[in-house]
Structures are given as C-alpha cells and as structure tokens.
Design a protein that fits this description.
The protein has 145 residues and is of the alpha+beta class. 26% of the residues lie in helices and 42% in strands. It has two domains: 41 residues; 94 residues, Sandwich (Immunoglobulin-like). It has one helix and eight strands. The strands form two sheets. The chain has a four-stranded mixed beta sheet, with no helix packed on it.
Length: 145
C-alpha cells in the first residue's frame, strides 16, 4: 500500500501568510514610530542650536591654539569635533581632535589645543550632537601672538 503525502490546505496557508504579514507590519510600524519621534525631537532641538567661533589665538610661546566658542543658540551643545586644515604647499593636511565638554546656551568658553604647524588654512568646529551647529574660521583670521 502506498502512502499519499498531503500538504496543508490552501485556506490554512493563506491565513498563515496573512497572520505573518500582520505581525511583521506591526513590528515595523512600532519601530518606525519610535524612529520618527526620536528624529523629530532631535531636529526640533538642533534647529535652535547655533555655534560661533568668536576668536582664535595662537600662542607661539607654548604652541597652543585657543578657540573662543560662543553658543548663540537656545539649547546646550555637547561634545565638539574640531578640525584644523593646514596648507603646506600640497594637499590640505587635516588635524582633528574631540572636545568633551558642554557649552550652555548663550555662553562663551575657551578651548585650548596644542598644535605644531602654524600654516593654518582654516579651522572648523562642529557639535557632535547637532551636526548643523558648526562654524568655520579662515587661517588669516587667527591671531598670532
């Protein structure tokens, strides 16, 4: 006697596919809602952020570059990345460092970094939290003392 294998009925297969699709859609909808809410709150915060380099001074005695930063926005900014690009008769050579600090709204603070090359093309500083909060100063605006 030969045994005949049977699969599930088409009706049960369709019901299982619909249930699986609804479960996946529910998971994705929950994730998308959380993601959109987080992005919206970050955007609302960062739209009020404004960072300005008020002054850059290089002290030739100790080799320190002092950046005076002003948070002209209405929200505090944290964790900055500064990049100095040098122009030494060739391709620009960037030098990057991180500043782990918080700059309160409408406040001014000076950050100091030791550098070795004084042939500065430009200095750019950017908030790690709000990428749109950044400023750039050209090398000829740096005060050498």
């Amino acid at each position: 006697m030969r045994r005949k294998d049977k699969g599930i009925s088409p009706l049960v297969a369709v019901i299982m596919l619909i249930a699986f699709t609804m479960i996946v859609a529910g998971i994705l909808a929950g994730w998308a809602t959380r993601f959109a809410t987080e992005q919206r709150s970050m955007l609302e915060k960062c739209v009020r952020a404004n960072l300005v380099i008020k002054k850059a001074v290089y002290d030739s005695a100790d080799g320190n570059l002092s950046l005076m930063l002003y948070n002209a926005g209405t929200v505090p900014l944290t964790d900055f990345q500064a990049q100095i690009t040098y122009n030494d008769n060739g391709p620009p050579l960037p030098d990057t460092w991180n500043i782990q600090s918080t700059l309160a709204a409408n406040s001014l603070e000076t950050f100091v970094q030791n550098i070795t090359d004084t042939n500065i093309d430009y200095i750019e500083i950017r908030s790690a939290e709000c990428q749109g909060a950044y400023d750039l100063i050209r090398g000829y605006d740096v005060v050498f003392s």
